[in-house]
Amino acid sequence: MIAMIGAAVAPGIAILSYFYLRDSLEPEPISMVIRSFIFGVLLVIPIMVIQYIMQTEWNWRDGIVAEVFQSAFVEEFFKWMVIYFTAYKHVEFDEPYDGIVYAVAVSLGFATLENLFYLIINGLDIAFWRALLPVSSHALFAVWMGYYLGLAKFSKGVRKERIFLWVSVALPIALHALYNAIFLSIQNWLVVIVPFMLILWWQGLKKVQRAHDFGSKKLSSRPQ
């Protein structure tokens, strides 16, 4: 059981540590990051209940439409809600890259407990693939979410903020839905999912650099 817990927790902690340590400007308080991670963990049960209701009461069991709403929309929307109400308005959210840190923390908290449940049910044989695909994908969807939350937080004007906030939730939902659709609709999904994940990493790391550049400009413009 200890090995299973370790296999479930290690990928999320490793990826979160990577993105946290990339924050070279004004690193977030570790207590805030841990709190966000725990919020993500706590999201798993209510989301599972909502998905169960969708499957049983609404009879959404199979197909791409069901996966889009049950998985992509529900999971990304509730993660976004948690980030918005617990981190976005917090005083510690003081540079654009912070959006990425908090979004990744919440998403990986969710992905870690979800990963543990999958390993308990299916065994350690799938641990490598779970770390490589679902856990990593949750983190990468969060990078896009956090990047646009950062742009929203430090945008000039209410209209721009609202546009970036909308993009920050809509884009991760779309990416998550596309990720699910690859597995559901393509027989030889490995041929497609590998380049898809590589593109997510490539673009995600570009978002990280852009958030840093934006943050550097913001800090340099502060009165000395």
Largest sheet: none
Structural class: mainly alpha
Helicity, as a percent range: over 70%
- Secondary structure tally: strands: 0
The percentage of residues in β strands lies in under 5%
Q: Over the alpha carbons, how many angstroms does the gyration radius reach?
A: 17 Å
User: Which stretches of 5+ consecutive residues score pLDDT under 50?
Assistant: none
Subcellular location: Cell membrane
Keywords: Cell membrane, Hydrolase, Membrane, Metalloprotease, Protease, Transmembrane, Transmembrane helix
EC number: 3.4.-.-
Enzyme class: hydrolase
Write the layout of secondary structure elements.
Blueprint: H1 2-21, H2 30-56, H3 64-88, H4 97-122, H5 127-153, H6 158-185, H7 189-220
Helix pairs in contact: 1-4, 1-5, 2-3, 2-4, 3-4, 3-5, 3-6, 4-5, 5-6, 5-7, 6-7
Q: What would you note in describing this structure?
A:
- This protein is mostly helical.
- The protein has one domain (2-220).
- It has 7 helices and no strands.
- It has helices spanning 2-21, 30-56, 64-88, 97-122, 127-153, 158-185, 189-220.
- Helix 2 packs antiparallel against helix 3 (64-88) and helix 3 (64-88) runs antiparallel to helix 6.
- Pfam families: PrsW-protease (PF13367).
- The chain crosses the membrane at residues 6-21, 33-53, 100-121, 127-151, 163-182, 188-205.
- Belongs to the protease PrsW family.
- This is Protease PrsW.
